[in-house]
TrEMBL record, chains A, B:
Residues 1-211 form the Peptidase C83 domain. Coiled coil: none annotated. It comes from Emiliania huxleyi. It is an enzyme of class 2 (transferase). This is glutathione gamma-glutamylcysteinyltransferase. GO terms for molecular function: glutathione gamma-glutamylcysteinyltransferase activity; metal ion binding. Its EC number is 2.3.2.15. GO terms for biological process: cellular detoxification of cadmium ion; detoxification of copper ion; phytochelatin biosynthetic process.
């Protein structure tokens, strides 16, 4: 068994000395707008294959969307166990979720979704400049970064211009800390084919369809 | 049922315009050292009465303590459901946990604990200056802040000198966002008697007894 993994040098750990420097510079430059609302909802994915669900829960709660149903006690709040409308949770627990299914789940739960497949060759990550209430979720292969595992989803928590890198708020917190990665490498990681679907990956831009109501 | 609560004016929301100003000033002043490792582990308490357990899980994972047992899959990682050694979880789920029992749980799980009851009249929150690997957990009454509910635990995520306030990383994220509160008001909130124990509350200073091993 494992207590975390060592982050490969392709990433700069958020809380490391260099990570804090990047953070301070990005804050001063105004490219961390999206960080505040997202980090308020930072979570550990509830199951080892729930990276998509954990990421989506973060974004739905950060968008302040009311799920319209209770979680526990009297509280209406998104939790991974409630995201069962597009694919049986048991299947996601075993195999994870595909890019298209995650976009479907986001729409079903009150988000406006712009879904961009990397095959579309669109300019990626413009959204990472960070308007609040619009969050970027990337679907990528960890292999590009020399990380263990393969397909993964992460919300993007900010952008640092000097190093042209973005902050990945990795929900597999039992494995890697949040970390900065180069934008070009991230784009290559998005362009890697998902062996389960035979398609390249992509990104989602998520906003609230109607704030405060599903 | 409720979708969050409005934060009373005794607190300044972390992601509000003013909250971001306080954050930027505290970052520049060097009083956010503890923020980085703690926010990496920010979580929602898993049950409505698990504020103590949620807070402790944040701190144990932020201290990088290896629980020595697996959570899910091959991963050793702290989760509230694993903190069952000092008090039955079912009791905590119904009634919450007392200050002394939480200190006991922290010790049992590999933390070095300095426990200060507010009745001791110690200087509170010196720890909020924020050396990494030493985190402050406060036990207080929400009533002092005009918030609904009463007894609560929160980790302290930073200090802002100009306003003499601290950042509470409130794990009841379904209710309130993280927020800044005045240190004097927090001290009064710590000094309020806990009706369940008849004692005043206090704070815990937590560090790793032996990093990487329980």
């Amino acid at each position: 068994s494992f207590h975390r993994r060592v982050l490969p040098p392709s990433g700069i750990a958020f809380a490391s000395t260099r990570g804090r420097e990047l953070f301070a510079e990005a804050l001063a430059a105004g490219t961390l707008h999206c960080f505040f609302k997202l980090i308020e909802q930072f979570c550990t994915q509830a199951e080892p294959a729930y990276c998509g669900l954990g990421t989506l829960v973060m974004v739905l709660n950060a968008l302040d969307i009311d799920p319209g149903r209770t979680w526990k006690g009297p509280w209406r709040w998104f939790h991974e166990g409630m995201l069962d409308c597009c694919e049986p949770l048991e299947d996601i627990r075993r195999r994870g979720i595909t890019f298209d299914k995650l976009a479907c789940l986001a729409r079903c739960n009150g988000a406006a979704v712009r879904s961009v497949c990397s095959g579309d060759n669109a300019a990626c990550c413009g959204g990472s400049s960070g308007r609040v209430h619009r969050f970027l979720v990337v679907s990528y292969s960890r292999r590009e970064f020399g990380q263990t595992g393969d397909g993964h989803f992460s919300p993007v928590g900010g952008y640092h211009a000097g190093s042209d890198s973005v902050l990945l708020l990795d929900v597999a917190r039992f494995k890697y800390p949040p970390h900065w990665v180069g934008l070009r490498a991230l784009w290559r990681a998005l362009c890697r084919t998902d062996p389960d679907t035979g398609k390249t990956r992509g990104y989602l831009l998520l906003s609230a369809r109607k704030p405060g109501a599903p």
